[in-house]
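Notes on consecutive records. When two proteins share a document, each keeps its own sequence and its own token line. Never mix them. Below: protein one.
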Amino acid sequence: MKACWDAAGEVIKAWATEGHSVALPGLGSMRFGLRAKSVAKVEDVKTSLISTRRIIFTPTQDLKDELANTSIQITCYDRNGDVVKRVTSADAGTVEDNDNENTNSESEQGQQGSQSQQGQQTASTYALTISRTGVGSATVTKDGNAVTSGTSLNEDDEVEISITPAEGQVPTATVNGSEIELTEDNGVYTGSFAMPGQASTLIINTGEGEDDDYDPNA
């Protein structure tokens, strides 16, 4: 029996690793799964979205019925080891269905895309330092809200820039040394970038000259 059980264990591991749901006779089935953050665009899919790996066991109905019908006894002892209270279960025998729990947060191996349980993923945040030179004006926002120097943002947060440069000047903006493409409309230049997964520096040049009164936190 030991040799058979050991051999069966190796087969179960091999099949589960390949993405199969493996039957365990008399007990249920098991498979591997993931908890991962969901994204809307395929170009945003990356391995860093994975938060945890899981082993998911789905019991047979017979096994769940056996647990539901099992009487549970709770015995309380005092410090001397004497029984002070004994109660027997009178609950409805409800068995938690782990296979359906967090269905929207499980992603089995072999499937494309990923989903996440609301509140399960705690996103990391990174500080954005903003530095500006020139005599024009500029605003930095996220979802319509002002972003000031030192603000912590999540990776891939969309940051928008609006620049009104000094007269006759063409502004520039870079994040961590990479130039941000700006589009001009009626003298106002706009652009955006996705927040990198690290502390970053945004440098905006609105035109010639230095504005010593500029406060990035204003």
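Protein two starts on the next line and is unrelated to protein one.
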Amino acid sequence: MELSNLRPAEGSVKNRKRIGRGQGSGRGGTSTRGHKGDKARSGSKVKRHFEGGQTPMQRRLPKRGFKNINRIDYVALNLGALEALVQKSGSDTFDPAALVAAGIGRASDKIKVLGNGKLTSKVNIKVHAVSATAKAAIEACGGSVELV
């Protein structure tokens, strides 16, 4: 075997259709496009959303709602999760960088402490936002909350 006599496997390569090369080819004349009409012309293309003149889907459905560009999305941190974090790490002081290192959100996220769950440990925490019930629970345990 040499490079000069390499061939593809039998039947693996097909010849392409040579359209519009005379009547003898079997694909001359209308060149597989049928007779006349828009789809027989060059440059003809139907847009993906076109429904044959019927009112298109995006016009039949109502517009609904809006996207508030001023919305601030917070990553929620419940008191129960905070208690588990204190037990796991052994530390009682947390700032956003420490929370990110513990796997709560990303560095670009804002973190908000929420009041779901029980807190028994004293915790000093710096976060972007805190609910009133969470703040009361943290301060009841002798901890403090500082907003970043």
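For the record: The chain has four helices and six strands.
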